Amino acid sequence: MAQITLSNLRHSYSATPKTRDDYALKEIDLTWEDGGAYALLGPSGCGKSTLLNIISGLLNPSEGRILFDDTDVTSLPPDQRNIAQVFQFPVIYDTMTVYDNLAFPLRNRGVAAAKVDARVTEIADMLEVTDMLGLRAAGLSPDNKQKISMGRGLVRDDVNVVMFDEPLTVIDPHLKWKLRSKLKELHQRVRATMIYVTHDQTEALTFADQVVVMQDGEIVQMGTPVDLFERPQHTFVGHFIGSPGMNILPCDLRDGGAFFQGEQVALEGPASQGDGETQIGIRPEFVSIADQGLDATITKVADVGRHNVVEARVGDIEVKAILEGDTPVKGSSVKLAFRPDQTRLYRDGWIATEAAS
Fold it and tell me: Which CDD domains match (predicted)?
């Protein structure tokens, strides 16, 4: 396994990039520690696949370096980077048995038969497919085919990193949670460096110890799932993560305070100095109905089981709240309160308040 370092990495698909917008990857400086479980999370077109292809050697970056431990692999082809990759669609041989599929990466490298058998048996046990070892892969269900594809990526114990490129795309929703749990369990057992690429926040947050959130070719935040939820460093992170996402509300700064729709709103801490467009960020979980607060009108109530998602309008701005128990009906006039220690100021998208002590 290896520590992976991306240093001053930039990439453009244009032969002669002239502006920052010409780069699919703007500038990436990042270190993934040996043995960690990481996720690359972001919408389609944000640069996730470009970054993955650069790490794997399928694409040479326009600028910068890729290091595996202290070895510069920037110019090395994929077969010399010692990487295993699991793709969106299962990559297995339908005419082979499950056993032979799992054994193939080892046999192809001349590993002794006894070690092949021991390793295949171990991985099959981890994946809970021991009873399928003698079956031809063609007859397996899609989720079991993807299990075998994962096993082919994990069966070698000498790889620098195992990369998963949206591996649950073709899996039925009711089976996804099983494979997510299994993958997390596998990481805890084998402790390989793993990078999981996805646009699905649930997959990223349940698998990874550290999540890298990307937007428009940039890393906007890297942190634990708790970090990303509780203290988004950028409004994109707050909006992208959470269901529903963070309320991002326009505000004015004056007289030392933040004002939303003419009313002063208490913030988590003092705001940094600077110019730029300012917004308040508050997650729906920390919006409540109170005796005092912002005048609002309920426009929608959605019962999602354990709680209700309520939409209200403050002036001409929509605010979402997550409420438990009895909730006002549509059309009701209420007052909304924001929990101060969870109310953050953002300037030009970036957090601009100090954390509450």
Answer: ABC_Carb_Solutes_like
DSSP per residue over 208-248, as a string?
-SEEEEEETTEEEEEE-HHHHHHS-SBHHHHHHSSSS--EE
Rounded CA separation 30/55 (Å): 12
List, by residue range, all CATH 2.40.50.140 domains of the chain. 245-351
Fold of 4-235: Rossmann fold (3.40.50)
Q: What is the pLDDT along the chain (357 residues), one digit of tens a residue?
A: 688 999 999 999 998 888 998 999 998 999 999 889 999 999 988 999 899 999 999 999 999 999 999 899 999 998 888 888 888 788 899 999 999 999 999 999 899 999 999 999 999 988 889 999 999 999 998 888 988 998 898 888 888 888 888 888 777 777 777 778 878 888 887 778 889 999 989 889 988 999 999 999 999 999 999 999 999 999 999 999 999 999 999 999 988 789 999 999 999 998 888 889 999 999 999 999 999 999 999 999 998 888 999 999 999 999 999 998 888 999 999 999 999 999 999 999 999 998 766
- Whether the pTM exceeds 0.85: the reply is yes
The amino acid at residue 42 is G
Third-level CATH fold of 245-351: OB fold (Dihydrolipoamide Acetyltransferase, E2P) (2.40.50)
